[in-house]
Amino acid sequence: MNTLELVVAFVLISILFYFLLCCAAGVKNSLLRVGMGISICVLPVFSFFIHIARQMGLVDFLNSTAEAFWAHPFILSLCIGMAMIFAGILVNQQKIPVTRLVKIGLLILFFINIPIIFTIVYVGCRYDATTQIGMDELLENTQVASSQPQRHVIILLFDEMSYRYLYADGKIRNEYPHFSELSTQSTNYHNAKASGTSTFPTIPNMIAGIKDLNVKLQDNHIVTYQENGKTREFAFDEHNFFARAQRKGFKTAVFGPYLPYCELLKSYVDYCMSYSVYNYGNLRSSFSVFNPIATNIILWPQQLPFGWFKRPLYAYWQKRGIEKVTHLSLEALKSNQPLMLFTHFYIPHLPFAFDAHGYRPASNPFLENDENYIRQLGYVDTVLGMIMDELKRLGKFDDSTIVIRSDHDYRKMTPVTKYNEIPLIIKMAGQKVRQDVHEKVHAGRLIHALFQ
């Protein structure tokens, strides 16, 4: 369906821009004609070259250039104005009809779009990514809570959650009451280490149970290095903790963004919903031409003028994603069988769209500072409270094992050497007393130990 949405949007937008360019070509004043033509084309042309730059690994260069321009808005305005005047004079002096320029431009775009169209058809026909497994069964079979509460193992990973912002002097900060309540009857690990310094490869390492698994993303596939230096496509084996949980008699569920969980774990999970941090259509079940347009905007830089479109849209995407995985997690807790649930929440990671009370986007959801991060960390506490309250309502809280962890520290405010320092809280089934562990521990190995 994503491919069909893209094709329809592509055709409609092409028709729209052709109509606008024809209208501009009919304007008599040459300078105005050029100005209108540039204004119409600037967004799609810049968008096209931005995506090329992404493919070439020039995103950081573009970001720094945009920041430099916006630091001097007068120079930016002057450059744009001079470029438009120069183009108008050039067209007027050369006596080139704008209609001819439009036709030449459309012809060039046609040849550029041939490989793009081929790629859309090739990928759309060949690949059908799995993004859901067993969701109808999950939602149908969990409407009524069991009269015989089952033990669950619940692993909640909050993306980029920082130990230093969550704790103060070894205690949970007062701003986070649900974390504080959980910590009083859990083991608090004050020197826990993740397997990596970013979401990828930390989470594949954690699931596989290998501390130094060398994986990377290559051509939209996860690959691992072999001893001869070559790569091969990565796949989880029967030693991953989902497989271990199944052998222990648990139903397994995973919900979250960023990694293609359902593709990677389809042999080991009973219920799954995964979504891309870029593909807006993953969070909509119905057909919508807006999905590919929104996906394109999400891939734009967050600096202005692109930020005027991206910032509110990406904040709303964050809202939809968090609502989705929270709802599915709460429904899964009603399982009448022992459940191993792993949920990857894309908070407090930017975009900063929440405070403790709910969806309240920051004025700039991409501004990484203490204020925005702490506001969103407040909502992490709120989400944890929802999970805890539902477990208590179902009579499963005491008998469930709950693991709270992160994949890496808040990197914007952390030295590189500390990126892998994370908070780790584990409440074992039946645990009532707080414990504190200050020795260095490997977070992934502790999770695997739950299923030995």
In percent, how helical is the residue content? Answer: 40-55%
CATH topology of the largest domain: Alkaline Phosphatase, subunit A
Termini separation comes to: 41 Å
Main sheet properties: 10 strands, mixed
* CATH class category name of the largest domain: Alpha Beta
Name of the CATH homologous superfamily of the largest domain? Alkaline Phosphatase, subunit A
Structural domains: how many: 2
- CATH architecture descriptor of the largest domain: 3-Layer(aba) Sandwich
Number of helices: 15
Helix/strand/pairing class, anyone? alpha/beta
Average pLDDT taken over every residue: 84
Low-confidence stretches: none
Beta strand %: 15-25%
Number of DSSP strand runs: 17
Large-scale geometry: elongated
Radius of gyration: 25 Å
Which features does this protein show?
single chain, alpha/beta, 2 domains, ten-stranded mixed β-sheet, three-stranded antiparallel β-sheet, 15 helices, elongated
Give a quick precis of the structure.
The protein contains 15 helices and 17 strands. The protein is an alpha/beta fold.
Description:
The protein has 452 residues and is an alpha/beta fold. The protein has 2 domains: 2-126, no CATH class; 132-449, Alkaline Phosphatase, subunit A. The chain is 48% helix and 16% strand. It is built from 15 helices and 17 strands. The strands form 4 sheets. Strands 1, 2, 5, 9, 10, 11, 14, 15, 16 and 17 form a 10-stranded mixed sheet that branches. Helix 2 (30-55) crosses helix 4. The longest helix is centred in the N-terminal third of the chain and has 29 residues, at 98-126.
